[in-house]
Amino acid sequence: IGPILQATHARFRIALAYPDSVSIGARLTSIEEDRFHLEHAIVSHRLQEVAAVGEGTVVSFHYNEQRKVELPEVIRERILRLEAE
Questions:
Q1: What pLDDT sits at residue 85?
Q2: Quick one: pLDDT at residue 80?
Q3: Over the Cα atoms of the chain, what is R_g?
Q4: pLDDT (average), residues 39-47
């Protein structure tokens, strides 16, 4: 059992070019029985602007049985603990 990316979407606002450094942030928007949803952003240090924003959905997946399954409780607790920090 592990994570599998079900869907992702990104909107690019500005072009990045070398040399540059970026910071990438993600946060939980919701958690369900078998999946969780995230928002993310990429920020250019050189330009001091958000270069891209997006969303993603990660599903708990049983690879041997090729089906989605309930998020293991330990993973759910760790995700929620990270979000609380």
A1: 85
A2: 92
A3: 16
A4: 98
Residue type, 68: K
Residue 69 has pLDDT above 90, yes or no: yes
Q: How far is CA 49 from CA 25, 27, 32, 72, in A?
A: 13, 18, 32, 37
CB contact at 8 A, 21 and 67: no
User: What amino acid is encoded at 82 in this protein?
Assistant: L
Q: What is the pLDDT of residues 1-40, one digit of tens each?
A: 999 999 999 999 999 999 999 999 999 999 999 999 999 9
Q: Which helix (H) or strand (E) holds 81?
A: helix 73-84
How far from 71 is each of 22, 35, 37, 57, 81, CA to CA, in Å?
31, 7, 13, 13, 15
DSSP-H helix ranges across the chain: 73-84
Structural element, H or E, at residue 77? helix 73-84
